[in-house]
Design a protein that fits this description.
There is one protein chain. The chain has 253 residues and is α/β, with parallel strands linked by helices. It has one domain. 43% of the residues lie in helices and 13% in strands. The protein contains eleven helices and six strands. The protein has a six-stranded mixed sheet with strand order 5-4-1-2-3-6. β2 and β3 form a beta hairpin. α6 crosses α9. The longest helix is centred in the C-terminal third of the chain and has 17 residues. It comes from Asanoa siamensis. This is DUF429 domain-containing protein.
Length: 253
């Protein structure tokens, strides 16, 4: 199995791309780079079994409706005392609220924070990856799944706050390798220790593996309609060791 992780930014130079090759009892980072183009990302995703993209894949349904009605000048203002809750529904997707309740982490708002610039790029990538015109699932059913590295690290019991500050990524790499001795960063270990964009790409590829083998959260039937349009953040549901224990037939080749 091959999984890809993309730490997506609006600009190429801040975007990381990792390719991880899985075999029986072993996972090897076979490629890792920072400063990647859309063409490089699309090529890597097409050559993978599952790709985790660290970017929102959609916008809150309430926000989409708000923008549409605002354009025509027919916005219905919130009732007295409901303004904060009304704005929250515009700012956060259902999956963001699920992540908040599960991990305590608050994802950036795709409609009110700068991460929206990365989401514009992600929308373009999804279009490039579906040339037939049939849209890719934003709920993670196709090759692409939305991931959130910090939340994945939380689920695996690793440092998930502050590691992007200068010098701290190296400490997280050491902890990751201790927790996952079956993971080989090879010649890319130095890059991971130096660049949190590269490290997040590797974590995204590990989270993609969790989604691929059924070890990540899925939307419930009641959540599926929203996840299909807004996107769904796949959270690992088991320990890191499960990524290698759940050996698939293709891993044995």
């Amino acid at each position: 199995m091959i999984t890809v992780g993309v730490d997506l930014a609006a600009a190429d130079e801040r975007s990381g791309l990792a390719v991880v090759t899985w075999s029986a009892g072993r996972a090897v980072v076979s490629s890792l780079s920072v400063g990647v183009t859309d063409a490089s990302i699309v090529a890597a995703v097409r050559g993978s079994d599952k790709a985790g993209i660290d970017s929102p894949l959609g916008w809150p349904s309430a926000f989409v409706s708000f923008v549409t009605t605002h354009q025509s000048g027919s916005v219905t203002p919130p009732s007295s005392g409901d303004g904060a809750a009304w704005r929250r529904r515009l700012a956060y997707r259902m999956t963001d609220e699920v992540v908040r309740s599960t991990t305590g982490l608050i994802p950036m708002s795709v409609s009110a924070d700068r991460i929206g610039h990365a989401a514009f790029r992600a929308a373009g990538l999804l279009a490039l990856l579906s040339p037939s015109g049939a849209p890719l699932s934003r709920a993670g059913d196709d090759v692409v799944v939305e991931v959130y590295p910090a939340a994945s690290l939380f689920c695996w019991g690793l440092t998930h706050r502050g590691y992007k500050r200068a010098g701290l990524a190296s400490d997280l790499v050491s902890a990751l390798l201790e927790s996952a001795p079956w993971l080989s960063l090879g010649p890319f270990e130095t890059l991971c220790r130096r660049s949190h964009d590269a490290l997040d790409a590797v974590v995204a590829a590990l989270a993609a593996r969790a989604a691929a083998i059924g070890q990540a959260s899925r939307p419930s039937p009641a959540q599926l309609a929203a996840a299909t349009t807004e996107g769904w953040i796949a959270l690992p549901t088991g320990p890191l060791a499960d990524l290698i224990r759940q050996t698939r037939v293709e891993d044995r080749s």
